[in-house]
Protein backbone atom coordinates (compact mmCIF):
# COMPACT_ATOMS: atom_id res chain seq x y z
CA UNK A 1 0.00 0.00 0.00
CA UNK A 2 2.82 2.42 0.90
CA UNK A 3 4.45 1.72 -2.49
CA UNK A 4 1.21 2.42 -4.41
CA UNK A 5 0.48 5.60 -2.44
CA UNK A 6 3.96 6.92 -3.22
CA UNK A 7 3.26 6.54 -6.96
CA UNK A 8 -0.06 8.37 -6.68
CA UNK A 9 1.54 11.12 -4.60
CA UNK A 10 4.18 11.73 -7.27
CA UNK A 11 1.41 12.67 -9.71
CA UNK A 12 -0.45 14.89 -7.26
CA UNK A 13 2.56 16.91 -6.09
CA UNK A 14 3.51 18.10 -9.58
CA UNK A 15 3.13 21.90 -9.95
CA UNK A 16 1.97 21.28 -13.52
CA UNK A 17 -0.92 19.21 -12.13
CA UNK A 18 -1.88 22.05 -9.78
CA UNK A 19 -1.93 24.52 -12.68
CA UNK A 20 -4.08 22.25 -14.83
CA UNK A 21 -6.61 21.66 -12.03
CA UNK A 22 -6.85 25.37 -11.30
CA UNK A 23 -7.24 26.24 -14.98
CA UNK A 24 -10.06 23.71 -15.37
CA UNK A 25 -11.68 25.12 -12.24
CA UNK A 26 -11.40 28.62 -13.68
CA UNK A 27 -12.98 27.55 -16.97
CA UNK A 28 -15.99 25.87 -15.39
CA UNK A 29 -16.51 28.52 -12.71
CA UNK A 30 -19.24 31.04 -13.38
CA UNK A 31 -18.29 33.48 -10.64
CA UNK A 32 -16.17 36.39 -11.87
CA UNK A 33 -14.38 36.94 -8.57
CA UNK A 34 -13.49 33.26 -8.38
CA UNK A 35 -12.22 33.31 -11.95
CA UNK A 36 -10.04 36.33 -11.20
CA UNK A 37 -8.62 34.82 -8.00
CA UNK A 38 -7.86 31.54 -9.76
CA UNK A 39 -6.10 33.39 -12.57
CA UNK A 40 -3.90 35.19 -10.03
CA UNK A 41 -3.08 31.90 -8.28
CA UNK A 42 -2.20 30.19 -11.57
CA UNK A 43 0.07 33.04 -12.62
CA UNK A 44 1.73 33.10 -9.19
CA UNK A 45 2.41 29.34 -9.26
CA UNK A 46 3.72 29.56 -12.82
CA UNK A 47 6.07 32.44 -12.00
CA UNK A 48 7.40 30.86 -8.79
CA UNK A 49 7.86 27.35 -10.13
CA UNK A 50 9.56 28.39 -13.36
CA UNK A 51 12.01 30.68 -11.58
CA UNK A 52 15.48 29.09 -11.82
CA UNK A 53 17.02 31.21 -9.07
CA UNK A 54 14.46 30.19 -6.46
CA UNK A 55 14.80 26.53 -7.42
CA UNK A 56 18.61 26.64 -7.40
CA UNK A 57 18.76 28.38 -4.03
CA UNK A 58 16.51 25.87 -2.27
CA UNK A 59 18.08 22.80 -3.87
CA UNK A 60 21.57 24.02 -2.98
CA UNK A 61 20.45 24.26 0.65
CA UNK A 62 18.98 20.73 0.50
CA UNK A 63 21.86 18.92 -1.21
CA UNK A 64 24.82 17.78 0.92
CA UNK A 65 28.31 19.00 0.07
CA UNK A 66 30.46 16.87 -2.26
CA UNK A 67 32.55 14.23 -0.50
CA UNK A 68 36.18 13.41 -1.29
CA UNK A 69 37.47 9.99 -0.23
CA UNK A 70 41.18 9.04 -0.28
CA UNK A 71 42.28 6.81 -3.15
CA UNK A 72 42.91 3.21 -2.06
CA UNK A 73 41.11 3.79 1.23
CA UNK A 74 39.73 0.27 0.89
CA UNK A 75 36.20 0.43 2.31
CA UNK A 76 34.70 -3.04 2.20
CA UNK A 77 31.56 -2.10 0.30
CA UNK A 78 29.84 0.59 -1.70
CA UNK A 79 26.04 0.56 -1.85
CA UNK A 80 24.71 1.79 -5.19
CA UNK A 81 21.02 2.69 -5.06
CA UNK A 82 18.89 2.12 -8.15
CA UNK A 83 16.71 4.65 -9.91
CA UNK A 84 19.20 5.40 -12.68
CA UNK A 85 18.09 3.07 -15.45
CA UNK A 86 15.06 1.35 -16.92
CA UNK A 87 13.85 -1.07 -19.57
CA UNK A 88 12.03 -0.66 -22.87
CA UNK A 89 9.11 -2.89 -23.96
CA UNK A 90 11.61 -5.53 -25.11
CA UNK A 91 13.31 -5.51 -21.68
CA UNK A 92 16.43 -3.89 -23.06
CA UNK A 93 18.10 -1.80 -20.39
CA UNK A 94 18.96 1.87 -20.75
CA UNK A 95 20.58 4.45 -18.50
CA UNK A 96 18.46 7.41 -17.41
CA UNK A 97 19.04 10.93 -16.11
CA UNK A 98 20.66 9.74 -12.87
CA UNK A 99 23.41 7.68 -14.53
CA UNK A 100 26.09 9.66 -12.68
CA UNK A 101 25.46 7.25 -9.77
CA UNK A 102 26.80 4.42 -11.93
CA UNK A 103 29.88 6.41 -12.93
CA UNK A 104 30.57 7.32 -9.30
CA UNK A 105 30.33 3.69 -8.16
CA UNK A 106 32.61 2.46 -10.95
CA UNK A 107 35.16 5.19 -10.22
CA UNK A 108 35.20 4.41 -6.50
CA UNK A 109 35.85 0.75 -7.26
CA UNK A 110 38.62 1.39 -9.80
CA UNK A 111 40.29 3.87 -7.44
CA UNK A 112 40.44 1.25 -4.71
CA UNK A 113 38.10 3.23 -2.45
CA UNK A 114 35.56 0.39 -2.29
CA UNK A 115 36.23 -3.33 -2.72
CA UNK A 116 32.71 -4.56 -3.45
CA UNK A 117 29.48 -3.04 -4.74
CA UNK A 118 25.98 -3.87 -3.55
CA UNK A 119 23.61 -2.94 -6.37
CA UNK A 120 20.26 -2.29 -4.70
CA UNK A 121 17.31 -1.98 -7.06
CA UNK A 122 14.28 -4.03 -7.99
CA UNK A 123 11.56 -2.54 -10.16
CA UNK A 124 9.73 0.65 -9.34
CA UNK A 125 6.85 0.10 -11.76
CA UNK A 126 3.36 -0.65 -10.48
CA UNK A 127 2.99 -3.64 -12.81
CA UNK A 128 6.20 -5.22 -11.47
CA UNK A 129 6.58 -7.06 -14.81
CA UNK A 130 9.92 -5.71 -15.96
CA UNK A 131 13.24 -7.21 -14.78
CA UNK A 132 14.92 -5.89 -11.65
CA UNK A 133 17.12 -2.87 -12.35
CA UNK A 134 20.02 -4.47 -10.48
CA UNK A 135 20.45 -7.13 -13.19
CA UNK A 136 21.03 -4.56 -15.92
CA UNK A 137 23.38 -2.54 -13.74
CA UNK A 138 25.42 -5.65 -12.94
CA UNK A 139 26.00 -6.36 -16.63
CA UNK A 140 27.11 -2.77 -17.17
CA UNK A 141 29.48 -2.84 -14.19
CA UNK A 142 31.08 -6.01 -15.52
CA UNK A 143 31.36 -4.39 -18.96
CA UNK A 144 33.21 -1.53 -17.25
CA UNK A 145 35.89 -3.82 -15.88
CA UNK A 146 34.51 -4.60 -12.43
CA UNK A 147 35.07 -8.15 -11.24
CA UNK A 148 31.77 -10.03 -11.25
CA UNK A 149 32.58 -11.63 -7.90
CA UNK A 150 32.77 -8.14 -6.37
CA UNK A 151 29.19 -7.29 -7.38
CA UNK A 152 26.39 -8.21 -4.97
CA UNK A 153 22.81 -8.06 -6.22
CA UNK A 154 19.80 -6.89 -4.20
CA UNK A 155 16.87 -7.16 -6.60
CA UNK A 156 13.78 -7.00 -4.36
CA UNK A 157 13.62 -3.36 -3.28
CA UNK A 158 10.98 -1.05 -4.76
CA UNK A 159 11.81 2.12 -2.80
CA UNK A 160 14.45 3.69 -0.57
CA UNK A 161 13.11 2.05 2.59
CA UNK A 162 13.45 -1.39 1.06
CA UNK A 163 16.91 -0.48 -0.25
CA UNK A 164 18.01 -0.16 3.35
CA UNK A 165 16.25 -3.26 4.69
CA UNK A 166 17.41 -5.67 1.98
CA UNK A 167 20.95 -4.25 1.77
CA UNK A 168 21.25 -4.81 5.51
CA UNK A 169 20.37 -8.48 5.00
CA UNK A 170 23.19 -8.91 2.47
CA UNK A 171 25.64 -7.11 4.73
CA UNK A 172 24.72 -9.28 7.69
CA UNK A 173 24.80 -12.54 5.74
CA UNK A 174 28.29 -11.86 4.36
CA UNK A 175 29.51 -10.05 7.50
CA UNK A 176 30.85 -7.14 5.48
CA UNK A 177 32.87 -4.69 7.52
CA UNK A 178 31.51 -1.21 8.24
CA UNK A 179 31.49 1.64 7.37
CA UNK A 180 29.99 1.40 3.89
CA UNK A 181 29.96 4.02 1.16
CA UNK A 182 26.39 5.02 0.21
CA UNK A 183 26.17 6.14 -3.42
CA UNK A 184 23.11 8.02 -4.64
CA UNK A 185 22.00 11.36 -6.06
CA UNK A 186 22.66 14.43 -3.91
CA UNK A 187 18.96 15.32 -3.99
CA UNK A 188 18.11 11.84 -2.69
CA UNK A 189 20.91 11.52 -0.12
CA UNK A 190 19.20 13.09 2.90
CA UNK A 191 16.38 10.54 2.85
CA UNK A 192 18.74 7.67 2.01
CA UNK A 193 21.08 8.39 4.92
CA UNK A 194 18.10 8.50 7.27
CA UNK A 195 16.85 5.12 6.04
CA UNK A 196 20.21 3.36 6.33
CA UNK A 197 20.88 4.88 9.73
CA UNK A 198 17.49 3.61 10.90
CA UNK A 199 18.42 0.17 9.55
CA UNK A 200 21.64 0.32 11.62
CA UNK A 201 23.84 0.40 8.52
CA UNK A 202 26.75 2.75 9.21
CA UNK A 203 27.38 4.59 5.94
CA UNK A 204 29.58 7.34 4.61
CA UNK A 205 27.48 9.47 2.28
CA UNK A 206 28.92 9.87 -1.20
CA UNK A 207 26.50 12.19 -3.05
CA UNK A 208 26.73 12.48 -6.81
CA UNK A 209 24.44 13.37 -9.71
CA UNK A 210 24.08 16.97 -8.52
CA UNK A 211 21.01 18.63 -10.03
CA UNK A 212 22.34 22.04 -9.03
CA UNK A 213 26.00 23.00 -8.71
CA UNK A 214 27.70 26.03 -7.21
CA UNK A 215 28.33 28.62 -9.92
CA UNK A 216 28.29 32.33 -10.52
CA UNK A 217 25.00 34.17 -10.85
CA UNK A 218 23.87 34.56 -14.45
CA UNK A 219 20.87 36.69 -15.38
CA UNK A 220 19.90 34.64 -18.42
CA UNK A 221 20.04 31.34 -16.50
CA UNK A 222 18.77 32.47 -13.11
CA UNK A 223 16.10 35.10 -13.81
CA UNK A 224 14.47 34.21 -17.14
CA UNK A 225 11.58 31.75 -16.52
CA UNK A 226 12.38 28.17 -17.55
CA UNK A 227 9.56 25.70 -18.16
CA UNK A 228 11.92 22.78 -17.41
CA UNK A 229 12.19 23.94 -13.81
CA UNK A 230 8.48 23.22 -13.44
CA UNK A 231 9.23 19.52 -13.86
CA UNK A 232 12.39 19.66 -11.73
CA UNK A 233 10.32 20.97 -8.83
CA UNK A 234 8.25 17.77 -8.84
CA UNK A 235 11.29 15.65 -7.93
CA UNK A 236 12.46 18.13 -5.33
CA UNK A 237 9.03 18.28 -3.68
CA UNK A 238 8.91 14.48 -3.78
CA UNK A 239 12.17 14.28 -1.84
CA UNK A 240 11.08 16.80 0.78
CA UNK A 241 7.72 15.10 1.32
CA UNK A 242 9.33 11.65 1.19
CA UNK A 243 11.84 12.62 3.84
CA UNK A 244 9.10 14.01 6.06
CA UNK A 245 6.86 10.96 5.62
CA UNK A 246 9.75 8.59 6.34
CA UNK A 247 10.52 10.52 9.51
CA UNK A 248 6.92 10.51 10.70
CA UNK A 249 6.45 6.80 9.95
CA UNK A 250 9.76 5.79 11.55
CA UNK A 251 11.42 4.68 8.31
CA UNK A 252 14.23 7.22 8.58
Topology:
Blueprint (H helix, E strand, L loop, with lengths): L1 H11 L2 H14 L3 H17 L3 H11 L12 E7 L3 E3 L5 E3 L4 H11 L3 E7 L12 H11 L7 E4 L5 H15 L5 E6 H13 L4 E6 L10 H4 L4 H22 L4
Parallel strand pairs: 1-4, 1-6, 4-5, 6-7
Antiparallel strand pairs: 2-3
Helix pairs in contact: 2-3, 7-8, 8-10
How would you sum up the major sheet? 5 strands, parallel
Secondary-structure-derived class: alpha/beta
Q: Please give the count of helices.
A: 10
Instruction: Give the fraction of residues assigned to helices.
Output: 40-55%
Give the low-pLDDT segments: none
Tell the overall outline. Answer: elongated
Spatial strand sequence of the major β-sheet: 5-4-1-6-7
What percentage of the residues does DSSP assign to strands (E)? 5-15%
Distance between the ends: 18 Å
Over all CA atoms, what is the radius of gyration?
20 Å
Write the element-wise H/E pattern from the N-terminal end onward.
HHHHEEEHEHEHEHEHH
Describe the structure in brief.
With 252 residues, the protein is α/β, with parallel strands linked by helices. It has helices at 2-12, 15-28, 32-48, 52-62, 100-110, 133-143, 160-174, 186-198, 219-222, 227-248; strands spanning 75-81, 85-87, 93-95, 114-120, 151-154, 180-185, 203-208.
Amino acid sequence: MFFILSKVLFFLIAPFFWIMVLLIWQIISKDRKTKKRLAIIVITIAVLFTNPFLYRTLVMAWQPQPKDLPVNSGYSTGILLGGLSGYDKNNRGYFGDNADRFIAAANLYHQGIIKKIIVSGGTGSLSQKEPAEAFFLKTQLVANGINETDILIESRSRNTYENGIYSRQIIDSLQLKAPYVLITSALHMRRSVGVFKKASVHCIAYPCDYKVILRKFDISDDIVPNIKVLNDWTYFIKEMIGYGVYKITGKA
